[in-house]
Design goal:
By secondary structure, the chain is an alpha/beta fold. The protein has 5 helices and 16 strands. It folds into 2 domains: 92 residues, Translation factors (Elongation Factor Tu (Ef-tu), domain 3, Beta Barrel); 148 residues, Nucleotide-binding domain of ferredoxin-NADP reductase (FNR) module (Rossmann fold, 3-Layer(aba) Sandwich). It binds flavin-adenine dinucleotide. Flavin-adenine dinucleotide (FAD) binds next to strand 4, strand 6 and helix 1.
């Protein structure tokens, strides 16, 4: 983890309210692993005072990308940043996804901008024979990263709430279908990786439990300092309170008391 100033290489709108920003990391930040995040100061003003956390979407030694949704003041300021301007960043932070070395399949479940860290994960799963990406969005214009996942060799299924693309309904319907198709077969060495709204993660955790599939979830609730100092992002787990920023943001779904 380090604090650094990074030049913005690009900052482009990719869908309604969604942007991808890339910056040049210093050497050590190039070691970022999927699921880790960067805490970004978007302005020198008092408001917003706190840094904002964003997961690594694409990772390379030359470039880190974040994918973000504009939801409030900080993300709105971020969306107006121009190529060449500087960002004050701390990272990479937290503990990311763990890929078992002998995995036969990875099921990625993304809700909305939850695709952000899962794309970096998919890119790292080169040794996993089967990668399935289940992407949930409000409408077809909000479906993000479909082609990028396909480009990585993943089998992609889409769910939209209004039915404008793919399955009409929730991404968790797709997850249920995925396992229902496997009835009678041993669910061998599969892992679910999920990122999205808490209600979605809770539903994913339940499906994983029912099918006895290991499941890792990336929690994206409020994080302030990002380094474990302020204790502001405590989450209740079976082994007491843990910090999203320091112990997570990725947790075993069985650990979380939903
Ligand atoms: C570890 C981690 C990784 C994250 N990665 C990403 C990412 O890759 N892409 C991305 O778009 N976002 C990500 N987020 C969420 C992102 O940090 C927030 O959306 C951002 O801080 C909002 O700042 P703001 O000032 O624009 O909005 P605010 O003005 O702070 O809030 C605007 C609205 O959004 C809600 N909100 C703000 N932050 C959160 C949150 N963390 N969870 C739920 N609701 C929230 C508020 O309740 C409010 O209604 C991540 C969060 C965490 C903890």
């Amino acid at each position: 983890m380090q604090q650094f100033k990074a030049k913005i290489l690009s900052n482009k709108k990719i869908a309604p309210d969604h942007y991808v920003l890339s910056f040049k990391p210093p050497k050590a930040a190039g070691q970022t692993t999927p699921g880790q995040f960067f805490n970004i100061r978007v302005s020198n003003a008092y408001n917003p005072l706190l840094r904002r956390p964003f997961g690594a979407h694409r990772i390379s030694p030359e470039k880190i990308e974040i994918l973000y949704k504009v939801v409030g003041k900080a993300t709105s300021i971020l969306s107006a940043k121009k190529k060449g301007s500087l960002l004050d960043i701390i990272g990479p932070l937290g503990n990311g996804f763990k890929a078992p070395p002998d995995a036969s399949a990875a099921i990625l479940v993304a809700g909305g901008h939850g695709v952000a860290p899962l794309h970096a994960l998919a890119a790292s799963l080169t040794a996993v024979p089967k990668v399935v990406a289940l992407i949930g969005a409000r409408t077809k214009t909000h479906v993000i990263s479909e082609n990028e996942f396909k480009g990585l060799g993943a089998k992609v299924h889409i769910a939209t709430e209004d039915g404008s693309k793919g399955h009409k309904g929730l991404v968790t319907d797709l997850l249920r279908k995925h396992f229902n198709r496997q009835t009678g077969k041993p669910a061998n060495r599969q892992t679910i990786y999920a990122c999205g709204p808490k209600a979605m993660l809770k539903a994913v955790a339940k499906i994983a439990r029912e099918h006895c599939i290991p499941c890792q979830v990336s929690l994206e609730e409020y994080v302030a300092c990002g380094t474990g100092a302020c204790l502001g992002c405590a989450v209740k787990t079976r082994s007491g309170y843990k910090l999203i920023c320091k112990d997570g943001p990725v947790f075993d779904s069985k650990e979380i008391i939903w």
